[in-house]
Design a protein that fits this description.
27% strand; 153 residues; alpha+beta; 5 strands; 2 domains; two-stranded antiparallel ribbon; three-stranded antiparallel β-sheet; GMP Synthetase, Chain A, domain 3
Length: 153
Amino acid sequence: MITTIRSTAKEPGTVIVHGSAAGFAQEIAAGRHALTADEPTAVGGTDTGPTPYDLLLAAIGSCTSMTLALYARRKRWPLEAVTITLRHSKIHAADCEACETTDARIDQIERDIELTGVLSEDQRGRLLEIANKCPVHRTLTSEIHIQTRLTTA
């Protein structure tokens, strides 16, 4: 069991994650929002929340949906709803035609987009292009620098 995070992430763009070293369950504070992450029981977790990869898929899925809806609203297109279905897997780089590396396994995210509304084929095609321009998609497909440092309690 985890204890409640005593502080919230007050700065925009700051997330605080806290977990006991005894298990996988994690408390997440994102501003005033509280989330939980965990692993399935089959791998030693307690299944109290989505896995870290589930959260990653949720991030790209929600960003894609928001981006498409915003674009359609600006264009005054008759988009009524967006449903994004995502899957994460590891594939052999040698099996990937668009991959630069061929000697390891790489992460693959499959994203299926369902658009509800009376849209022309041109509008649907443009929205598919816009999906690849959502900020999270751009972050995941660009070079990422993660700076890690130890702090004291």
